[in-house]
């Protein structure tokens, strides 16, 4: 979006990118040393490139700032998986073999697979899991 706002339609791509301090061709921006037949580096023709004037440095600065921001965690579990795990815990507690035989185990998960799914749920929603287990213990106490 920063490039889009600073773009000048009357200029070429190369001119626009040069004004922003960006490279049009990455091979020219970071030159690779040419090697001779024996593996020795060969010097270039001695032609020095003229210095490019960056007229729109704010574009580069804004892009660097955005790149330095930490990435947000947007991982969530599906509602179906959450319901499945809560149902299994509610009906079977910690008995994974019993969970594997349950009729709601549509995907025929093994006890280890079910345990892994429950652990994923615990890691994603630790507070919700603790509250759920506490409510189950409360229900058992009320029944007795």
From TrEMBL:
Keyword terms, alphabetized: Nucleus
Keyword Nucleus: yes
A Pfam family hit: Nop16
Record-annotated membrane-spanning stretches: none
GO BP: any one term: ribosomal large subunit biogenesis
Principal location class: nucleus
Signal peptide: none
Domain of life: Eukaryota
Entry-linked InterPro entries: Ribosome_biogenesis_Nop16
Protein localization: Nucleus, Nucleolus
GO CC terms, sorted: nucleolus
Family of the protein in this entry: Belongs to the NOP16 family.
Protein name in UniProt: Nucleolar protein 16
Organism: Asarcornis scutulata
Taxonomic lineage of the native organism: Eukaryota, Metazoa, Chordata, Craniata, Vertebrata
């Amino acid at each position: 979006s920063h490039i889009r706002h600073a773009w000048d339609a009357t200029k070429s791509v190369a001119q626009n990118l040069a004004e922003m301090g960006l490279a049009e061709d990455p091979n020219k921006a970071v030159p690779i040393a040419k090697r001779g037949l024996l593996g020795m580096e060969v010097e270039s023709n001695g032609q020095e490139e003229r210095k490019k004037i960056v007229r729109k440095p704010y574009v580069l600065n804004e892009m660097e700032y955005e790149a330095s921001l930490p990435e947000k965690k947007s991982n969530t579990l599906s509602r179906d998986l959450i319901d499945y795990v809560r149902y299994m815990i509610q009906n079977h507690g910690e008995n994974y073999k019993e969970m594997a035989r349950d009729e709601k185990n549509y995907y025929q998960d093994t006890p280890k697979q079910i345990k892994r799914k429950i652990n994923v749920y615990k890691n994603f929603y630790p507070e919700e899991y603790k509250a759920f287990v506490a409510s189950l213990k409360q229900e058992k106490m009320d029944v007795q």
